[in-house]
Fold Signal recognition particle receptor subunit beta.
Amino acid sequence: MNSIIELLKSMDTTMFVASIVLAILVIVVTSLMVQKTLFKRNSRNFVIVGPPQSGKTNLFQRLTTGKLPVLTVTSIQPNVGPLKVDNSQYGENFSDVIVSDYPASSKMKNLYLYPFLSDNISSCRGMVYIIDASAFDAEYCHYVANDLLTLLPITESIPNGVDLAIFCNKCDYFTSRKPAKIHLMLEQEITKLYGLKLRNLEKVSESAEDMGVELEDSLNTAFNGGQFKFEMLEGNVDFLEGNVFKDKIDSLIDWFCEKTAN
Ligand SMILES: Nc1nc2c(ncn2[C@@H]2O[C@H](COP(=O)(O)OP(=O)(O)OP(=O)(O)O)[C@@H](O)[C@H]2O)c(=O)[nH]1
Ligand SMILES: *[C@@H]1O[C@H](CO)[C@@H](O)[C@H](O)[C@H]1NC(C)=O
Ligand SMILES: *[C@@H]1O[C@H](CO)[C@@H](O)[C@H](O)[C@H]1NC(C)=O
Ligand SMILES: [Mg+2]
């Protein structure tokens, strides 16, 4: 009788130890997983993209060094660095925020931008799409609309989307277009291009359909009755005006502040 109780007791202890070990294992594994996801969400990444010669590298230098470069040449590789702006008036600690500037040619985008986005889209807190407002004619608008139709399916592919700042640079030229006008022109052009794409889709083969269907899936909610509206996207889109040369970038720094805070 006694020996049976003894046996039960010893079994109890082994069971007890085993379950403790199991519990600790479970806690360690889940905390590691949580830490990993938290870390991913907390790394604050911003990308600067836009057409050639719109001022990406000047903006990048201003944001990461506080100064403008003496001279820039067409970029052939990305620039990556920590955001370094005077934050005393914003009360926001930007010390872990990383900004990168991607070259604009399609070859360079295939090489650097798209691989970066497909790897790191979930840690991307925002995208700055900088345009030259003094060069914004119909052709320029067409280029930007096409570019956005490639980028938006990527930024809209995550829950809530990636927030976008369309920064209308070079407002120091008196010929520069106003953000409200640029907003309108872009919506009309994207509506037109999307309509063309859908019509081609009906006509042509399966391979085109593969591309089109993907585009439609993540973007179709933004086409209200066929009309594209930025406000219908999951990510928030802000049209900002400024001028890197004359240091008129307050609206953009406010935007960074807002996007890093939440
Ligand atoms: N007037 C004016 N010119 C600007 C401004 N910002 C940049 N520029 C000029 O625009 C040109 C392009 O500037 P970058 O910063 O090199 O532009 P980028 O977009 O990096 O160019 P790529 O790397 O070739 O795509 C340069 O000649 C700059 O001096 C601005 O706010 N006002
Ligand atoms: C910002 O945060 C970092 C750690 O994340 C800290 O080392 C640094 O002192 C902080 N800077 C300011 C100005 O609060
Ligand atoms: C994704 O981000 C990490 C960390 O910022 C970086 O090291 C890596 O090169 C990025 N991926 C690509 C394909 O650029
Ligand atoms: Mg550049």
Remarks:
- Residues 52-58, 72, 74-75, 103-104, 169-170, 172, 243-245 surround guanosine-5'-triphosphate (ligand 1) (CB under 6 Å).
- The chain has seven helices and eight strands.
